[in-house]
């Protein structure tokens, strides 16, 4: 059975990753897009919102992939589930834990598959790193996720609004990998957030977790090549380093062979499995850690952030 899918929100990630991944996967057919600006994929009908789409194409859609900013996803996903559609959520799945818990309950009540996708968990090294760490005791964890917000989020005002996650928008990718590979749960003990005086969300964050020496540093003010690494030492002195957002893996300093990156094709392969089985797959751990960090946060005001002309 071909899954007739619609993309809800047609921004950078919908264009760059969802459209080509759907086109390459024989389980799916892209049949519609919703976008307030009217942008769509070549030859694919576009509607202002999900309500207009459902009214115009009754019985012609099986699933939606929601690629809007997170703060508006709950209402859209709830409507889609109520309309009998399977739902794929971009990361982070919703703006709050309450919203995702509500969607899990709705999906179960109406028997529709719900998948909260975490693309970084599909990075080529994640399974190998999880296998290497299974049954070990971790002594040290160091997450470093530094990049230039101007390069990766040019003009995206929503990242600075409540529910926009700020530096946790990329940082949650690191947390999604860490929670997938670590043999134990990450518990936040302290969080230091740096907030531009004119913005609602952090531009940098330092987290300390329970454990001997577990920490994470996220920073959007970084210049030059991004640094997205996770380093782990076990009590048996094994040293594991995931580099380049999980595209490379070093074990005791030696490069581990890895497949090429194919995160979004892998997300769609998983979603096809879930739709076929009528099952949901929702991992809230990365979102739970960000929520805990925001609960415990000490906040420091830093200089205002303004886009430069043309951004
Ligand atoms: P984006 O380029 O700003 O696109 C978001 C789209 O959602 C916009 O084009 C907009 O389309 C639509 N939208 C915005 N506000 C909306 C609202 N209130 N109601 C309905 N639609 C709305 O953002 P993005 O980079 O694609 O990111 C979207 C999500 O994907 C984020 O959660 C992000 O974390 C995730 N993601 C992004 C990347 C990346 O590299 N960019 C990578 C992985 C995951 P219209 O104005 O046309 O409606």
From TrEMBL:
SUPFAM superfamilies: NAD(P)-binding Rossmann-fold domains
Molecular function terms from GO: nucleotide binding
InterPro entries in UniProt: Gfo/Idh/MocA-like_OxRdtase_N, Gfo/Idh/MocA_oxidrdct_glycsds, NAD(P)-bd_dom_sf
Residue ranges of every copy of the Gfo/Idh/MocA-like oxidoreductase N-terminal domain listed in the record: 3-112
PANTHER family: BCDNA.GH03377, DEHYDROGENASE
Protein name: Putative dehydrogenase
Organism of provenance: Polymorphobacter multimanifer
């Amino acid at each position: 059975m071909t899954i007739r899918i619609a993309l809800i929100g047609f921004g950078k990630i919908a264009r760059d990753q969802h459209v080509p991944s759907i086109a390459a996967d024989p389980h799916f057919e892209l049949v519609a897009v919703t976008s307030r600006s009217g942008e769509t994929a070549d030859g694919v009908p576009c509607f202002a919102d999900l309500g207009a789409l459902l009214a115009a194409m009754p019985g012609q859609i099986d699933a939606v992939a929601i690629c809007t900013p997170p703060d508006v996803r709950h209402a859209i996903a709830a409507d889609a589930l109520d309309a009998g559609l399977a739902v794929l959520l971009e990361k982070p799945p919703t703006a709050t834990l309450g919203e995702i818990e509500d969607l899990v309950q709705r999906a179960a009540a109406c028997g529709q598959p719900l998948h909260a996708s975490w693309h970084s968990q599909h990075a080529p090294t994640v399974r190998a790193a999880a296998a290497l760490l299974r049954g070990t005791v971790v002594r040290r964890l160091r997450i470093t996720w530094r990049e230039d917000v101007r390069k990766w989020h040019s003009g995206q005002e929503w990242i600075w609004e409540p529910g926009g996650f700020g530096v946790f928008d990329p940082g949650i990718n690191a947390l999604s990998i860490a929670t997938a590979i670590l043999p134990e749960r990450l518990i936040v003990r302290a969080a230091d957030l740096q907030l531009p005086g004119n913005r609602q969300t952090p531009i940098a964050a330092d987290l300390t977790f329970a454990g001997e020496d577990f920490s994470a540093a996220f920073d959007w003010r970084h210049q030059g090549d991004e640094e997205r690494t996770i380093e782990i030492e076990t009590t048996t002195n094994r040293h594991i380093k995931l580099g380049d957002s999980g595209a490379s893996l070093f074990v005791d300093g030696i490069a581990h062979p890895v497949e090429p990156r194919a995160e979004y094709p892998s997300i769609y392969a998983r979603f096809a499995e879930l739709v076929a089985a009528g099952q949901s797959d929702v991992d809230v751990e990365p979102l739970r850690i960000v929520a805990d960090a925001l609960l415990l946060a000490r906040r420091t005001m830093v200089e205002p952030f303004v886009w430069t002309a043309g951004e």
